[in-house]
């Protein structure tokens, strides 16, 4: 199996941490190359048995900090249609705002599975995580919702397993 995955989410939610740990835990082919005019970065995770996952990082989100809507339109028109799975990372600090609703709306156009990763669960109580899951479930029909800690490695394997499940 092989396929493309895009990692979306607000700055600082842990996208790079998750990706670095995924790549780091099994030394694979890593490549960083500008792919399009938007400077998409792609990193390849190789599992000898299961196949390859190409992660598309979209650095534009950092520049578009206060223009999440604009960014998402671009993403919706470019990255989202080129991928097999969408990974949306959030952190359980603030609840759903306009930015999240906009992302959810853009994702309605997507036909591929969207996996929600609730990262940084090491920073909150279990009940808060459950509450978070319930809230997010109402705004989008996620293929999977995975509570995780990219930093501590919690459920990192589950994220990989679920990606392969949908490839
Ligand atoms: P990005 O902007 O989405 O790529 O976020 P980064 O990967 O750069 O992470 C932003 C900050 O969150 C860094 O200080 C990370 O160490 C921290 N961070 C990432 N994942 C976790 C996590 O699971 N738990 C905690 N406590 N901190 C995390
Ligand atoms: Mg980053």
From TrEMBL:
Question: What are the UniProt keywords, alphabetically?
Answer: Cell membrane, Cytoplasm, GTP-binding, Membrane, Nucleotide-binding, Ribosome biogenesis, RNA-binding, rRNA-binding
Task: Give positions of region: G3.
Answer: 57-60
**Predominant location:** cytoplasm
Give the membrane topology: Peripheral membrane protein
Spans annotated as G4: 119-122
Top-level taxonomic group: Bacteria
- Give its localization: Cytoplasm; Cell membrane
| UniProt keyword annotation of Electron transport present | no
- Region listing for G2, in residue ranges: 35-39
Residues at which GTP binds: 9-16, 57-61, 119-122
Sequence ranges assigned to domain Era-type G in this UniProt record: 1-167
Q: Where is this region: G1?
A: 9-16
Region spans: G5: 148-150
General function of this protein: An essential GTPase that binds both GDP and GTP, with rapid nucleotide exchange. Plays a role in 16S rRNA processing and 30S ribosomal subunit biogenesis and possibly also in cell cycle regulation and energy metabolism.
Q: Which family does it belong to?
A: Belongs to the TRAFAC class TrmE-Era-EngA-EngB-Septin-like GTPase superfamily. Era GTPase family.
Record text on subunit structure and interactions: Monomer.
State the protein's name.
GTPase Era
């Amino acid at each position: 199996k092989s396929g493309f995955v895009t990692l979306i989410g607000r700055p600082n939610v842990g996208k790079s941490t998750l990706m670095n740990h995924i790549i780091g835990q099994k030394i694979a082919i890593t490549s960083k190359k500008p792919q399009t005019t938007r400077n998409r970065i792609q990193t390849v995770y190789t599992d000898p048995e299961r196949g390859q996952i190409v992660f598309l990082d979209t650095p534009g989100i950092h520049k578009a900090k206060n223009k999440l809507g604009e960014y998402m339109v671009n993403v919706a028109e470019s990255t989202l249609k080129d991928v097999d799975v969408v990974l949306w990372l959030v952190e359980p600090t603030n609840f759903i705002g306009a930015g999240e609703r906009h992302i959810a709306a853009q994702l309605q156009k997507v036909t591929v599975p969207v996996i929600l990763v609730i990262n940084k669960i090491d920073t909150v109580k279990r009940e808060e995580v459950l509450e978070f899951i319930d809230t997010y479930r109402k705004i989008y029909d996620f293929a999977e919702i995975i509570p995780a800690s990219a930093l501590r490695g919690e459920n990192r394997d589950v994220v990989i397993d679920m990606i392969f499940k949908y490839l």
